[in-house]
């Protein structure tokens, strides 16, 4: 069984004992005592108010962190696959080029390419990827289109799309790739 530790202050011969001075306490002015009591109370109230303020700030910060984490989690769920989606866009482009090169051929290979392209678009839609497919004659929109070239073309207005080189894609509401288009530069006249 362990021995109890000794209190070093009890055994210290040089330690002075502090005695309560009753005479000095009786000589205190009651008004001074009330003032010091009020000052002590005000100090306690000020400390309480400071602690309440610190607590409220800490609670607000914790709530902000919780909201930020929920928003980040939601964005990660919604946009986390954007890198993979961008990497799949060239696959779409190559399948589209293969169909364009095949022309009107109606053999099994072309049918397989069409089915593969259809399946890829179905997967895109399932994951919130939508196509930005402008038509010739639409107005150029810098939010969704990238001008690859400008050329004057009769019977068009400046800013009209005159050629679509590649479709663009959105992931939910974020642009993955703008549609690549040619734009008319016909001067107003």
TrEMBL record:
Location(s) in or outside the cell:
Cytoplasm
Q: Which PROSITE patterns match?
A: GRPE
Segments for region (Disordered): 1-38
The record, for CDD domains, names:
GrpE
Which domain of life does this protein belong to? Bacteria
The record's listing under InterPro entries reads: GrpE (IPR000740), GrpE_CC (IPR013805), GrpE_head (IPR009012)
Any coiled-coil ranges, and where? 41-79
> What keywords appear on the UniProt entry?
Chaperone, Coiled coil, Cytoplasm, Stress response
- Composition bias, Acidic residues: 9-31
Q: What does this protein do?
A: Participates actively in the response to hyperosmotic and heat shock by preventing the aggregation of stress-denatured proteins, in association with DnaK and GrpE. It is the nucleotide exchange factor for DnaK and may function as a thermosensor. Unfolded proteins bind initially to DnaJ; upon interaction with the DnaJ-bound protein, DnaK hydrolyzes its bound ATP, resulting in the formation of a stable complex. GrpE releases ADP from DnaK; ATP binding to DnaK triggers the release of the substrate protein, thus completing the reaction cycle.
Q: Which family does it belong to?
A: Belongs to the GrpE family.
Oligomeric form and interacting partners: Homodimer.
What is the protein name for this chain? Protein GrpE
The scientific name of the source species is Jannaschia ovalis
Q: Which gene name does the record give? A: grpE
């Amino acid at each position: 069984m362990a021995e109890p530790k000794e209190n070093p202050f009890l055994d210290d011969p040089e330690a002075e004992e502090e005695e309560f001075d009753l005479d000095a306490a009786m000589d205190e002015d009651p008004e001074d005592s009330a003032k010091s009591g009020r000052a002590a109370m005000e100090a306690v109230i000020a400390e309480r108010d400071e602690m309440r303020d610190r607590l409220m700030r800490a609670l607000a910060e914790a709530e902000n962190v919780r909201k930020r984490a929920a928003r980040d989690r939601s964005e990660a769920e919604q946009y986390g696959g954007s890198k993979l989606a961008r990497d799949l866009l060239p696959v779409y482009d190559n399948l589209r080029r293969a169909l364009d090169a095949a022309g009107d051929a109606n053999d099994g290979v072309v049918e397989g390419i069409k089915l593969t392209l259809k399946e890829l678009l179905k997967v895109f839609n399932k994951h919130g990827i939508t196509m930005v497919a402008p038509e010739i004659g639409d107005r150029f929109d810098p939010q969704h289109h990238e001008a690859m070239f400008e050329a004057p073309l009769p019977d068009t207005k400046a800013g009209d799309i005159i050629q679509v080189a590649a479709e663009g894609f959105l992931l939910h509401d974020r642009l993955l790739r703008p549609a690549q288009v040619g734009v008319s530069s016909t001067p107003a006249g």
